[in-house]
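WARN retry 2 of 3 for item q-0093 after timeout on previous attempt; input resubmitted unchanged.
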Amino acid sequence: PGDDKPRVFHELNAEEQAAVIKKRLSAYTRRVYKRTHDTKVVDRVSTVCQRENPFYINTVRNFRDRRYTYKGKLKMAQKDLAKAEKNNDAFKITENANLVVLYDSLQLAHKCILNSFYGYVMRKGARWYSMEMAGIVCHTGANIITRAREIVEQIGRPLELDTDGIWCCLPGSFPETVVFKTTLPGKKSEVEVSYPCSLLNYMVFKHFTNSQYQTLVDPTTLSYSTHSENSILFEVDGPYKAMVLPASREKGKKIKKRYAVFDMKGDLCELKGFELKRNGELEVIKNFQKSVFGAFLKGNTLEEVYGSVANVANHWLDVLFTKGEGLADSELFHLISENRSMSRVLADYEGQKSTSITTAKRLAEFLGA
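OK item q-0093 returned
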């Protein structure tokens, strides 16, 4: 340390020797085996019993039920908004539009919390850590989505499989909702049921019902009642106007989850995996994606759609090939900049290379740190 004189291996300390060995081994495995990790899939059987203390299940159920409450209020607010727009009532339109935003935000917040429960139980150090429970949840979810895909393939075309859902394209002639008229006093006169949702929920009921679920009846005698339990339900979102999915560059090679979804108004309502949503990406890429996604909605034929997309792509290619000719310096610097953050101190990134690390080092030199 302190000079650039090369040292032989045995002159290095233990940490430096380990770093050199790790670097050489990684380079060798990448060159010879084309990978640095091996993944093995092993079948295991496990049971998680929460009969004595079902606090975890009850917590998840309470969050789910509260989300259903907000979703119900959201539907009512949307109906009231549509009625207000029909009557051109400006005050009611503003009031119900605010309620739609409020209830939609609340149900989405509960959805995010519910989704985090699974990730939490498989995080080491978590208070409720249980890899068995995480494995069972993941395996059950995968089986449900697989069966759902088999049903959808008989009706329409699956577009994207997720861990907790499936995006699909159904024929226009396929029934979307079925309305039942009731004559019971004090009840709703009409009940709407989603037909695709009912098909999938029946499959879940048939194959994934727990027929020996036990609930504590008397804490003193520890007596339990046994009943069938199935609280896994599909929900149908949509329909949507368009879904943009990128194709794999190589045959047989899978790509990570990436898609953009547009609602019937033409607004971008769902975005996964693209640079537009992430920090630490070049602004020119974000701006290109922001403008190109909307181009997919233009045109009545496939040729016209590709033409509108090509016009956007040509514009940004011209910016790249001319090196920003015609742009102001401030605009050009904005396009080639990126926003990144470092979560650890600079010393923890020793031996690594990135624009963030280089920038941090130059700033330290400039500031004399």
